[in-house]
Amino acid sequence: CPRSCCCCRRCPRPPPSAPREPAPAAPPAMNAARTGYRVFSANSTAACTELAKRITERLGAELGKSVVYQETNGETRVEIKESVRGQDIFIIQTIPRDVNTAVMELLIMAYALKTACARNITGVIPYFPYSKQSKMRKRGSIVCKLLASMLAKAGLTHIITMDLHQKEIQGFFSFPVDNLRASPFLLQYIQEEIPNYRNAVIVAKSPDAAKRAQSYAERLRLGLAVIHGEAQCTELDMDDGRHSPPMVKNATVHPGLELPLMMAKEKPPITVVGDVGGRIAIIVDDIIDDVESFVAAAEILKERGAYKIYVMATHGILSADAPRLIEESSVDEVVVTNTVPHEVQKLQCPKIKTVDISLILSEAIRRIHNGESMAYLFRNITVDD
């Protein structure tokens, strides 16, 4: 009662209120997504897990516990040794010489993680296998499209790769593909490790590689040269060379149908478009596998007056006797990234140098997991890179 009331002294005071107990916390929603992520390596060889270890060290994470091995009958077996339910999973798979085994390891691990209820499964495949088989070859098949369908069926929801042989390969997939570029790391190597690089000229060993070479030349403010007239067959010579119906002399042809005769291709002699005399020649490409074309290009550049020759490529597959051919050639240095393991080739040929690209792969993993934009990794990057 207010004090002005005459009976305020006779009004009983209300009892002190008891302290309220805190309300019990609401139980977590059954469908609440976990925010953790795990990084696994799908390789069964120690040489191929080196890149995965570098990436996890940069991320400050531990490599996921799994076992990948080949049984005595040649089958691949994968065992996941920890819970991955509701987590973002990143599978790092570098491709060794045994390509088909690596593909099966990736497919089986992705399917095992999908069965274990992982939320998202991202494949980190720096060198995408079968990328050269992305066009029709006579009565062959587009194997790269088949592999893309297999990866989607196995459970992958995203792919991180680097320098696809053809940018159009991204259209084969039904899920997002981040095609990172190694050109910033190779450009940095040129600026820091090649003495007097201002006196260099960027060389395309074929007209097909001219766009990539032009992009390097424009960024380094250097000249450009193109080698024309290779002795070997290029990919364009093999594109869709089917004859239907077959060319038969005695075949009956519709009387009103007269097809024009196709003139046979004849390659011109090897020429170098551009001045390389007294300069450092830097040949750039995306893949260096069979090195015969690079060795032939180095010989012709040496004849034209180039006094030092470098070869820069993203993926150093270096199959067969490539190290021996490089060691015996006029090439002074071959620079590749560690998208493909090539430690054995480096022991055979000291001219092979390696550039580490684990930095950009680890940053891509971090941004994808946190839902951040990937535009920073593509700054100043063009389609031709």
Automatic annotation (TrEMBL):
Keywords: Nucleotide biosynthesis. Signal peptide: none annotated. It comes from the Eukaryota. Residues 45-155 form the Ribose-phosphate pyrophosphokinase N-terminal domain. SMART domains: Pribosyltran_N. One of its GO terms (biological process) is nucleotide biosynthetic process. NCBIfam families: ribP_PPkin. Seems to play a negative regulatory role in 5-phosphoribose 1-diphosphate synthesis. Belongs to the ribose-phosphate pyrophosphokinase family. Binds to PRPS1 and PRPS2. This is Phosphoribosyl pyrophosphate synthase-associated protein 1 isoform 1. It comes from Daubentonia madagascariensis (Aye-aye).
